[in-house]
Amino acid sequence: MSREIVFDPLLALPVLAVLAALACVVLGFALWRRLAGWWLRGLGALAVLAALANPSLQEEARDPLTDIVLAVVDRTASQGISDRAAQTDAALAELERRIAARANTELRIARVADAPEGSERGTLLMTALSEALAEAPRGRIAGAVLITDGQLHDLDMAPEMPAPVHALLTGREGDWDRRLQVRNAPAFAIIGEPVTLRLRIENQGDVPADAEGMVELFVTIDGGEPQSFSVPVGRDMEVPIRLPHGGMNVIQFEVPAAEGELTDRNNAAVISINGVRDRLRVLLVSGEPHAGERTWRNLLKSDSSVDLVHFTILRPPTKQDGVPVSELSLIAFPTRELFLEKIDEFDLIVFDRYRQRGILPPIYLDNVRRYVEDGGAVLLAAGPEFAGAESLWRSPLAEVLPGMPTARVVERGYTPEVSELGARHPVTAGLEDFAPRPAAEDGTPGWGRWFRQIDVTAETGDTVMRGADARPLLVLDRVEAGRVALLASDHAWLWHRGYEGGGPQLELLRRLAHWMMKEPELEEEALRAEAQGQTINITRRSLAEGARSVTVTTPAGEEVAVELTETAPGRFTASYEGPETGLYRLADAEKDAVIALGPAAPREYAETIATGDKLAPVVERQRGGILRLEDGFPGIRDVRAGRVAAGRGWVGLTPREAYLTTDIRIRPLLPAVLFLLLAAALSLGAWLREGR
Predict the structure, then answer these.
(1) Cα 580 from Cα 356, distance rounded (Å)
(2) Distance CA 341, CA 692 (A)
(3) How many CA atoms lie within 13 A of 419 on its CB side?
């Protein structure tokens, strides 16, 4: 119960003020006239003014409200290092016990969990404190206690607290840790050319003397054999890397765990660099001018990333037309330079209707065979000459060609079709979707006809397209490290010219060139993985039929079997939710792949030493304290607002004494009649005294 005197004037305050001024004037006049009863007159006027002010006694019935103590408990990943989780549990239990023992005080707990996997938000300690503060009346906040390792990533979200803030640090004062950082890494790099990455290995905390100096760094590309380097600690260093293939290259850097360090989760880093080709160098050798020659040239020149060297044999040595050589404006064919000295500089060699005329000796063609076996690519666009005596089949190059000519040339119209195997091969899969018109009811593709085909017998490789009478039209083959393609027709240019609506020649040749360049997306036997957040989208391409499954190895070493579903011919897919960030390995009986989800060392592990340096601005602003739990749980005292709220072994809370008013009663101190009688008595006394 609370009692106090309040005023409820019967007149407006300005009127009451005017009356008080008049009373003062009258009282001043009485003093000036030296009237003996001036003081009685003054008391009478005061009684009248008091009656008009209407003084009342106000009584309030109050229910006291509890003081609120906010506890923000850090449960993020870094709090799982060493025995910090146990320290946190013990501290929270003790805080609950201490607050429960205090009169009229309650504890409200906010827990800071890990950010979603793959997120780089880190520890949002101040955000949790702000949200807890917003849900409680500020007038009841007696203080806040943060149980944390001191590592946070949202200091700018710190709220203005109406009471002391204290931090109870987990961890040990003698802790130390080592971490690996990738300072800079490009998003893409040119295949085969060195790209320099900047790394740094540094120690934190109470580092032992034997942990300084040089350490061993392991570099792994796509989960292959690791390369080892001896690198210094505490200095930025440059590591040269060469990307082995196009597409995404997953590179992992790792430093072995040292004895006594807090965790090895920040001893590794994973980056992905997209490998691209600088320029595609193509050698196009045309055996003779024909209608499709310009089509080949225009297609290759239309791509700005292609460096084309094109030679057409306009005047073979056997040609005798009586024109003196000195009058010819022809460039000598640099056969030795191209086919012996610089052949390995080309990514692709195209023989367009080439026939043996003595220009390329057998030793040069044998060098082309060697070029293929060492990893080169040859595309043979065959014309009628391939079926004759001057065919490349009758040269050393025959050892790498996938088809043998039967000496027969088919000269009639036919519609090229994708074979059953070709429907599964990435070079020709879905090629019908690029046709200028829908397929016919009998399944005939919606593109134009060709009118010549060289009859060949496919001895090796994969026949992905068929022509007249289901004869092999496009045969693809792998020869040791290289690749060979045989197109048994010289009428592909009809598609380019739009005959009977044309056809997808550009798409076909683009895929064909990329397959021969070993681009990962055109591999017929491939296992690929793409990350979307914590989801791994798995794609397995295969020419073989049957059920497929992939074994996924998590960063923790757990193996999970994932069944794949065939969503298109030769294409099997599935999705897998990764339980944590880090490097995942995927493998089946034939192929394997690696993929990184999020950073290998999340932001939580960038700094692992427990320290109050980051929290100091927030805590000191409210005159709170930062204490280590390894020194014992501090005592709790009451402190006044604005006073120092922490000391050696203790922290303070500010009692708020908040309450809820449940009832109010107001009654006059005296009836108005009594005030008037008092005023009248005082006035009468003044008159009697002055009348003597």
Answers:
(1) 61
(2) 146
(3) 20
What does the DSSP 8-state code read for residue 327? Answer: G
Structure token digits, residue 158: 């710190």
Distances (CA, A) of 248 to 18, 199, 274, 530: 90, 20, 4, 10
CA distance 126 to 122: 12
Please tell me the number of Cα atoms within 13 Å of 215 on its side-chain side: 24
What phi and psi values does residue 206 have, to the nearest 5 degrees? -85, 80
Q: How far apart are CA 150 and CA 87, in angstroms?
A: 14
Pairing of strands 105-112, 55-64: unpaired
Kindly state the helix (H) or strand (E) to which residue 273 belongs, with its residue range: strand 268-276
Q: Which helix (H) or strand (E) holds 527?
A: strand 526-532
Beta bridge partners of 199: 182, 237
pLDDT digits (tens, 9 = 90+) for 529-572: 888 878 999 999 999 888 789 999 987 788 999 999 999 898 99
Q: Which two tokens stand for residue 151?
A: 């590592």
Q: Which residues of the chain have a pLDDT value below 70?
A: 1-3, 6-8, 11, 34-41, 61-62, 115-120, 314-333, 599-602, 661-663, 670, 672-673, 675, 679, 682-683, 685-692
**Angstrom distance (rounded) from CA 232 to CA 227:** 16
269, 253 contact by CB (below 8 A): yes
**Six token digits for residue 136:** 């409680």
| pTM beyond 0.85, yes or no | no
In order of 191, 223, 266, 280, 571, the CA distances from 594 in angstroms are 19, 6, 19, 27, 19
Round to whole Å and give the CA distance between 577 and 597. 10
Place of tokens 């390369």: 227
Write the pLDDT tens digit of every residue in 371-421: 999 999 999 999 999 999 889 999 999 999 999 999 999 999 999 999 999
- pLDDT tens readout for residues 456-486: 999 999 999 999 999 999 999 999 999 999 9
By C-alpha distance, which of 244, 194, 191 is closest to 221? Answer: 244
